[in-house]
Design brief:
Length: about 130
C-alpha cells in the first residue's frame, strides 16, 4: 500500500472513530506529538479536540458523519463530508484538510457550510 493510501485510511479511521463517539481512541491511535488547529473557534492539542467532540456529541447525540470523498497528495488528506447534527435536518457540508507526519495527524484546517433547503441547481452538494 502506498503512503498516500495509508494516509487516507488513517484519516478516515481517525475521523470516524472520533465522531462515532470515541475521540480518546482516535487520538491514541492517530495523533502525532502535536495537534495544530487552524479553526479559529478551536484550540490546539488533543485535550481541546476531545473536549470539542464530547461537547458536540452531548449536544447532538444522534449526529451522523458521512465521508463522501477522500483525496490525498503527499502528506495532505482532504475529506468532503456530510455532517447531520439532528435527524431530518439538512446538516452541513465539511471540507477538512489534515496534514500527517510519519502516519500521524498533526495539523487540521476546515471549511464548513450549511446545506441549504433549496438549491439553484439540481446537482446537490455531495
Amino acid at each position: 500500500m502506498s503512503d498516500i493510501e495509508r494516509n487516507k485510511q488513517i484519516v478516515v479511521d481517525y475521523y470516524q472513530t472520533a465522531f462515532g463517539g470515541n475521540p480518546q481512541k482516535a487520538i491514541e491511535d492517530h495523533f502525532g506529538d502535536r495537534y495544530i488547529q487552524h479553526n479559529p473557534d478551536a484550540a490546539d492539542g488533543p485535550e481541546a479536540f476531545i473536549g470539542f467532540v464530547t461537547w458536540l456529541r452531548g449536544e447532538y447525540p444522534d449526529l451522523q458523519l458521512d465521508i463522501k470523498h477522500v483525496i490525498a497528495e503527499g502528506d495532505m488528506v482532504v475529506t468532503h463530508s456530510h455532517l447531520i447534527l439532528k435527524p431530518g435536518e439538512p446538516g452541513r457540508a465539511l471540507a477538512d484538510y489534515f496534514r500527517l507526519e510519519d502516519g500521524k495527524v498533526v495539523e487540521h484546517w476546515d471549511v464548513i457550510q450549511d446545506v441549504p433547503a433549496q438549491s439553484a441547481n439540481p446537482n446537490g452538494m455531495f
